[in-house]
Amino acid sequence: MKQQAGWQASLEDPFRAELLAVGDALPERVRECAEPLRGEPAFDLEEIARIAQAIRLPAEVRFEHPFLERSVRVRLAHIEATFQSDHPKYGVGAYAEACHDGFPPTIIAAVDALTLWDMPVRAERLFAYWLANFVREDGTLRYYGPSLSEYGQLLTTARRLMERGGTPEWFRQNRSTLARIAAYLQDGMRRNGSIALLSGAPEADTCHETATYFHNNAWIVRGLDDWADLIANHPESWQQAHQIHEEASILRRLLLEAIEATWPHTPQEWWLRPTLEPEAALGLEPPRTQVTETHLGSYTNYRYWPELLSSGVLPRALMERVVSARLQFGGQFCGMTRFADHLDDWPLMEWLEALWQLDRHADYRLSLWGHLAYHQAEGHLTAYEQVTFPPGRKVADYCLPCQLVAARALRRLV
To answer: In this structure, are 275 and 358 located in the same domain?
Structure first.
């Protein structure tokens, strides 16, 4: 379609300027931009409605729009529909195959959503099962292509759980497994008596493209810092926690030095490659004018940049440069994440986290409402992993991390 082609060719989000200016009218105006997404639900609608109605939301919560309470309930209900008792599933269709069960973002998203909405007991149970079944004795993850960033995110997930109602007994029972994850990262960064950036897989789809990725190292820093804070609460671990903090600090310094050396401070240099190694050395092609025009550019825009930002490791000025690059060189459409010739929002929470850290609250609401309007199906609210530009249709099956984006993001707004 001609309109779709025009949207795909645009460098700046064609609706952003207009929608940022409408203020409280955003929920209504965003839906006037294009036709809604339509498709089949992932689960039986009556079953989802039954689970959703039984959910007890915090008594103090007040929603700015009537649609939002139903949206949160339906999303949280999908946790129960997707998991098989305590056993994780990424989604339906091809994503229900056993090889996807250990995908770390599934448990990371589920625990975050449950604890944000005051359901720590269910979060403890799901996370304990995952740790018991998907972490090996050497601290590696039982999954075909985990990113190093996910190791750090799992440690941060443990801290979030404990800060939001997790019990000392849960931590006591699962501490040794979490410690194995932390030790695996520490062993990887210690080389020849010093600390060094880690090389590894950046994402399941690209797990063969191992390199020294900036987002991986950023989340290793964040995860180890959060783990150190957790064990520092126990007197016998204070010295160990201090050492972990020191090593994470060194790794952060090395990371920032590497990024600064890689990314010149000139207006022409909008592209921050995601790796310490040059693209040519990896056999990859950088984008030239639009970030999603190459394989590497698309993956950087949809996951590597957002995770680098969400880690909270970068200084503000550097975060703003990355955000500007995404906004000015074809990285989003109506607030959603562009990937090649379609949209892929399952990691959108990482982008939203960065916007919140930067006090870009208008952009935060734009991305959230764009996602609500065009990345979930009209009526039953199923969120597919990938969708077309409007008029939307499913490109890839439903997956739980995408379904939970709005539930996680909305908690900050109520």
So the answer is: no
pLDDT band at 138 (very low <50, low <70, confident <90, very high): very high
Q: Are residues 266 and 143 in the same domain?
A: yes
Question: Which two structure tokens, joined as six digits, stand for 110?
Answer: 């589920």
Domain identity same for 270 and 290: yes
Q: Given the structure tokens 């903090």, which residue do they identify?
A: 245
Residues 174 and 264 reside in one and the same domain: yes
Domain boundary among 279, 300, 323: 323
Considering only the C-alpha atoms of the chain, give the largest distance between any 2 of them, rounded to a whole number of Å: 65
- 190-233 pLDDT tens trace: 988 899 999 999 999 999 999 999 999 999 999 999 999 999 98
Domain that holds residue 378: 1-101+331-414
Number of compact structural domains in the chain: 2
Residue with tokens 């007890």: 56
Q: Cα–Cα distance between 120 and 110 in angstroms, integer?
A: 11
The reported pLDDT for the residue numbered 1 is 65
pLDDT at residue 267 is higher than 80: no
Q: Which of 338, 399, 398, 325 is nearest to 367 (CA)?
A: 338
Domain-ending residue, one of 284, 303, 323: 323
Instruction: Provide the token pair at 98.
Output: 């056993």
In angstroms, rounded to a whole number, what is the distance separating the alpha carbons of residues 279 and 272? Answer: 11
- Calculate the average pLDDT of the chain: 97
> Contact at 8 Å (CB) between 180 and 269?
no
Q: How far is the C-alpha of 219 from the C-alpha of 225, rounded, in Å?
A: 10
The candidate with the shortest Cα–Cα distance to 227, out of 305, 171, 166, 266, is 171
My answer on whether 176 and 270 are in the same domain is: yes
Give the global pTM. 0.97
Q: Are residues 158 and 190 in the same domain?
A: yes
